[in-house]
Design brief:
71% helix
C-alpha cells in the first residue's frame, strides 16, 4: 500500500507542476487566476521580483516545473527532482509569498496576493518523495528491484563456487 500512496502523491504533484510549468513556458491553461503565461510574461514577472536575468530564470523555472513534473509522473530520478522542485518552491516563498503571510487569499481580497500556505504543502510533499523515493510503481522502483535481483544472483553464484 505504501507504493500506491507514493504513486498517488507523485501523480498529484506531477499534475500541479506540469500545469504550472506549461503555463510559464507555453501559456497553457492561461486565464483567470493564473494569467496569460508564456515565457515573456513569466520573464516580465520575474524581472519585477529582481531575478536577473529574468528570461534565464523564467526558462529555468518553467523547464524545471514542466520536465520535473513529467519525471515525477514516471517516478524517474524522483529524489533529485523532488529536491530541485522543493528548492524552486522555497525561492517562490522567499520572493513572492512570504510578504503576504501564511494564508492564501481565500476571500479574493483586492490588493492582496497569495500567502505561503500552499507552497509549504508542496514542499512537504516533495520532501516525502525525496526521503522515500518513487515507490514500487515507478521507474526508480523497477530499477532498484532489478539491481537487487542482480546482487542476489551474484551472491548465490559466489556461495556455490
Amino acid at each position: 500500500m505504501v507504493g500506491l500512496g507514493l504513486l498517488v502523491l507523485r501523480l498529484a504533484l506531477a499534475v500541479v507542476f506540469v500545469a504550472h510549468g506549461g503555463n510559464k513556458m507555453f501559456g497553457w491553461f492561461g486565464g483567470p487566476g493564473i494569467g496569460p503565461g508564456g515565457l515573456s510574461t513569466t520573464a516580465a514577472f520575474f524581472g519585477t521580483l529582481g531575478l536577473n536575468p529574468p528570461f534565464v530564470f523564467a526558462v529555468a523555472e518553467a523547464a524545471l516545473e514542466l520536465v520535473g513534473g513529467v519525471l515525477l509522473a514516471f517516478g524517474f530520478l524522483t529524489r533529485a527532482v523532488s529536491i530541485a522542485l522543493a528548492i524552486g518552491m522555497g525561492i517562490a516563498i522567499w520572493k513572492v509569498h512570504f510578504q503576504w503571510g501564511f494564508f492564501l487569499n481565500w476571500m479574493a481580497a483586492p490588493n492582496r496576493n497569495q500567502g505561503m500556505e500552499y507552497a509549504i504543502v508542496l514542499i512537504a510533499a516533495l520532501a516525502c518523495l525525496a526521503l522515500s523515493g518513487g515507490g514500487d510503481a515507478s521507474v526508480d522502483g523497477i530499477n532498484q528491484r532489478s539491481a537487487d535481483r542482480d546482487k542476489a544472483g551474484r551472491a548465490r553464484l559466489r556461495g556455490k563456487i
